[in-house]
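Re: [ENG-882] Designed sequences occasionally contain unexpected residues at chain ends

Forwarding the minimal case from QA. Structure tokens:
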């Protein structure tokens, strides 16, 4: 039986983005695959009174099972309400790669979907995105499209080279597809290896000129930034100290994200930072407690550190803390 996101207590992203645009901040879109990640995201956002987008990739859906995910999201809403919180919570499909996947998510209670046709020729991207929008809007589900390609190797998103968004295409794309938000490529990429830096070299600045051109052509329209993990050095170091091997990892400096959050960027996607925090904390715990085998013992501290990381992001990077009073 199909279920509407409204029955699960979720909201779409329309109102969230309107407020973010007016308030000069961005809402965090945090990926989750398991219970501890979801608990960390929700408890962090409840604590700092922040709106939040719970983000699920195709891979996460396969890992956790779509029915399980739907009830997890419903449980997360219920948990927030029992904590006395009214924060708006959206459930969003990250990098949907087909019409059928988007339909299935909408029928399973997602309040927002991304159709990522960024790798397709322009006209095909328009056609696919419009098809998803036409279906989604019948159920008041919001849709994110993408123009420009981010580099990065991930299960379902894989490109060696990035292609910046062409500002001259954005107006045509938005008006012909009817999307509610647009992801653009301005120099970020997915994963923990965003920039290939030579020794002593600094991370290059994001292409704010492209962002500004897009803003000019789409006044008041919500822009989305993918690949926005900072690849927190503290946790990369911790992973390496406790037996891991993550070399030459580099992410987007937080001050650049702060600048983006103040602009028309209303949604900032963060996944890798959460993965790094969790891995570092588990490695540390197991290395210091080699005889421990109760998963709660090592997942508990990882969940706590994750929660603190999300609190920091909301307060000091995205600016969304306190915006859901
Ligand atoms: O941008 C992609 C997200 O980080 C999700 O990655 O497909 O490995 O779940 P995933
Ligand atoms: P990161 O890999 O930088 O966390 O980006 C996540 C993302 O864009 C999810 O869609
Ligand atoms: Zn992404």
């Amino acid at each position: 039986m199909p279920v509407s996101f409204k029955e699960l207590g979720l909201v779409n992203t329309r109102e969230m983005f309107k407020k973010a645009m007016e308030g000069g901040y961005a809402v965090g879109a945090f990926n989750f695959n398991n219970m501890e990640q979801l608990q960390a995201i929700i408890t962090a956002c409840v604590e700092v009174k922040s709106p939040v987008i719970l983000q699920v990739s195709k891979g996460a859906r396969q890992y956790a099972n779509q029915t399980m995910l739907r009830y997890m999201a419903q449980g997360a809403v219920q948990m927030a309400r029992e904590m006395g919180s009214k924060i708006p919570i959206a459930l969003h499909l990250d990098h949907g790669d087909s019409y059928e996947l988007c339909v299935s998510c909408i029928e399973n209670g997602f309040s927002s979907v991304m159709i990522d046709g960024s790798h397709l020729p322009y006209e095909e991207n328009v056609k696919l995105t419009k098809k998803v929008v036409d279906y989604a809007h019948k159920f008041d589900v919001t849709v994110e499209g993408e123009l420009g390609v981010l580099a990065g190797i991930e299960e379902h998103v894989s490109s060696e080279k990035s292609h910046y968004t062409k500002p001259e295409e954005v107006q045509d794309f938005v008006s012909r597809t009817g999307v509610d938000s647009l992801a653009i490529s301005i120099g970020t990429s997915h994963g923990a290896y965003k920039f290939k830096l030579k020794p002593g070299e600094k991370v290059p600045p994001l292409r704010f000129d492209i962002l500004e051109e897009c803003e000019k052509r789409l006044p008041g329209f919500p822009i989305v930034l993918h690949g926005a993990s900072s690849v927190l050095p503290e946790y990369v170091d911790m992973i390496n100290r406790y037996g891991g091997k993550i070399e030459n990892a580099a992410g987007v400096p937080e001050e650049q994200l702060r600048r983006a959050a103040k602009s028309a960027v209303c949604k900032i996607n963060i996944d890798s930072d959460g993965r790094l925090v969790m891995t570092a904390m588990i490695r540390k715990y197991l290395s210091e407690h080699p005889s421990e085998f109760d998963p709660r013992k090592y997942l508990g501290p990882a969940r706590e550190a994750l929660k603190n990381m999300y609190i920091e992001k909301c307060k000091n990077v995205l600016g969304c803390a306190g915006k859901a009073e």
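QA comment: On inspection the terminal residues look reasonable. The CA atoms of residues 33 and 63 lie 7 Å apart. Proposing we downgrade this to a documentation issue.
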